[in-house]
Amino acid sequence: MNKQNPEQDQPISLYQSHAVIVSTIIGVGVISMQRGIAKEVGPDGIWTILIGGLIVLVEIVLITRLMQKFPGKTLAQFSSELLSFGKKRWLGKVLSIPLLVGIGWYWLLTIAIVTRTFSEVAISAVFPQTPMEVFMITMLGSACFAAGQRPELIARFNEFLMPFLFIPGLLILTAWMEAGDWENLLPMFQVTDWKKFLQGMLTSAYSYSGYSVLFVYMAYYQQPKKAMRAHILATGTVIVGYWVTIAASISIFGPFELANLMWPTLDLIKQVEVPGQILSRLESAIIGIWVVAVFTTLVNMFGVLVDISLTTFNLEERFRKWLAWGSLPFGYLVANRPANLEQLFRWNDLAGIYEIVMTLVIILILSILTRLRADKKGDQNASSSA
Amino acid sequence: MRTGWQRRRSRKKKKMWDQRSKEQLDKRVGDQPVHMEIERNVEFIGKVLGDSSDLITRWFTIQYIPDRRAVLMCVDGLVDKRNLDQFVLAPLMTRGEQLQTKTDLWMMVNESLVAAEEKKKSSQLKETVDSLLSGDAILFVDGYSEGLIIGAKGWEKRGVEDPRAEAVVRGPREGLTETLRVNTGMIRRRLKDPDLRLKDFKVGERTKTNLTMMFIQGIVDDTLVKEIEKRIQEIRIDSVLESGYIEEMIGDATLSPFPVLQNTERPDAVVAHLLEGKVGILVDGTPHVLIAPAVFTQFYSSPEDYYERYMIATFLRLLRLVAFFIALLLPALYIAFISFHPEMIPSKLAIALAAGRSTVPFPSIVEALMMEMSVEILREASIRLPGPIGPTIGIVGALVIGEAAVTAGVVSPLMVIVVGLTTISSYANPNYSAAISIRLLRFPMMIVASILGLYGLVIALLLLLLHMIKLRSFGVPYMAPFAPLRIKDVKDTLIRIPWPFMNKRPSIFRPVDDQREDG
């Protein structure tokens, strides 16, 4: 009897897919995205964040539509099928490798950036005396435990943790109510420089990075046909969350001060006064809750990286764990690369562009191929029936 | 349905074990038929049991033409001797002469002389020895190569008492006992459903413990029953003295700190679980019935939740959740706050804290470990202390030691509060085996908090959560119905909705008939 994994009878449900998208996108981006946007477009950030979200929404819709044509198959599996011509299966494998390496490199890069950014924040805000390596290793190491599990289990993990992501949202809303100044949001439309506005739009779009994990998770869906609504809803949730964050930051700090803050969201939540005075300062608590958001992003990316390697090389299930631990040193090495924060932020932006472009390229190539294949098949069917 | 449970032994090894135990049994008992000459049977059984002193052999004569010698054997202490005298020995000894000589003696003995409900003919000595040891009496009559096994079980047993570990204010006061049949009777009495099924097994090579699986056909998922049956049949062990043996032998995650089977000594709780499509496993010799599968939330509900009004039940469940977190995290949070995040403590409290800690020579982790360990020792000691003085000594010990430790400047006053709250909170859990796993997990949490503060604590919690989400109990995810989310099943987890709205059985246990009431 074939050994079947028990996880396979719990495929990813619609709600879980919602959770995966929300908790992948909400990660390190949420803690510092306001600065870049404020620098470029000032108070218009509340509009660019919406437009950036729409750009990402379009990409997510495209991915969803592509993946819906290949239910139960990850990017590695269906791309090699599409790219093989005739009976040459190896050709498909070889041709699909550039695509897989391209997107895989993005995931590895993001793992590194997320880890590094988190460690930087933890050190600057709460643990000034702890060496950064401690955070990077503990974070990557614990993410490894989760990444060595099947995607269905990772989705369940996300599902359970998603409600916790809304706690900072509540705190931000509280801060906005307590310390917000509406005048800072005015004047509302002040597009003086369209080039800058465009750039602000792109910067806003980067902050939603991470949606490319769908290339893998969608293969494990229970109802991929119905996924579109869940995906749009999830993206909508993130857009609303981001909009609240940026609007609150601008109205509390004003666009000029915001452009100079290192970690605006952290400063935002510092404004909150806990009712009843149980806790006096909230940084440590926020780092504690934020670990959850970062951890889920990390785990999802890591899980995708491991799963795509597994399906590319057609390995057995038991190698999953070893792949996770095997890719840990690479993540660590890349995370150590940026020399300083300045460079780290630039990497972050580059990774954002890279994801948008890479995803588009993959979608374009594979969609055209799918269309061609469908036409050919249609012709064949037509000729055979005729 | 495949589950995460792995076979712990290869099939080959299992075969070897079976072979070995069969050989041993043959060496001891052998495979002999019942002999016509009863002396040889008695001699054989005496040899098998090594002429143990509790073996009773009563020779007598059935007055028949011609007189026949017969022998009744039983084990002292396992049989009801008065019954045997009255309904087996007396008729045989006195009414034998009334028999017509035409009819076959053995048939008459079997059908009209021995007045017992449970009777069975047997022609294998091995079988007779087995039933002799489980409390039956055996009758051999000279000239017949068959023995008659007479059910005459009757030993001293404890009466039905309060369930000690699961006390409730409102609800039945009956607890299960050590005798399997009494227990099945108590469950049957509450559930007069013809679909209630009992399936018997014998486990333990030497103890030959009776084990009964109970479930309701038509509600329970058939694959679940088959899976449990399979796992029980694969048990190879010499003894089963308590259901804990079975729990560890058939459970999915033997190495996990969390229990994946629930145990209860309340018949009403067993019935409630059976009605949710679960399987009860009753083991002879213990009042603790195993319930499979079990999910995490059910360890935080008490039978009383269903008897009290729903609002109170919901409140109590939420309270237990708070107690769960206090028991797991409070000392760890104390350590994290003191050594890493003093800025989070409101300034007035921080000053008072610093004053309290000024005499304490140790870092907070040492202080906390010291206090927690001494409370654990006190708790353990107060269970072992005889009778009524146990709790008293516990309270006095805790108070005196706590007070003295503060005065001596060994611990800070806040630490005493923390330890007290933690201990009380861990008692709020209605299920003992789940409560001890939390007591245990507290210590790693404290150590992690002392190394990496709140950050480490959250990471440790996330890893713990990952483990719990991965855990399965007979195919049911342990964190269901939260992960995976089954929104309709949440009605009976953290909250309990009123009975009129509880019209479906929880779907996570895959009941065949999921309708509980109309509506």
TrEMBL record, chain A:
InterPro entries: Spore_GerAB. Belongs to the amino acid-polyamine-organocation (APC) superfamily. Spore germination protein (SGP) (TC 2.A.3.9) family. GO terms for biological process: spore germination. Keywords: Germination, Membrane, Transmembrane, Transmembrane helix, Transport. It is found in: Membrane. This is Spore germination protein. The chain crosses the membrane at residues 12-33, 45-63, 94-114, 126-148, 160-177, 197-220, 232-256, 285-310, 322-339, 351-369. GO terms for cellular component: membrane. It holds the Pfam family Spore_permease. It is a multi-pass membrane protein.
Automatic annotation (TrEMBL), chain B:
Residues 1-15 have a biased composition (Basic residues). Signal peptide: none annotated. The keyword Oxidoreductase does not apply. InterPro entries: Spore_Ger, UPF0353/GerABKA_families. The keyword Transmembrane helix applies. It comes from the Bacteria. GO terms for cellular component: membrane. The chain crosses the membrane at residues 318-337, 392-421, 441-466. Residues 1-31 are annotated as: Disordered. One of its GO terms (biological process) is spore germination. Keywords: Membrane, Transmembrane, Transmembrane helix. Residues 16-31 have a biased composition (Basic and acidic residues). Belongs to the GerABKA family. This is Spore germination protein KA/spore germination protein. It comes from Melghirimyces algeriensis.
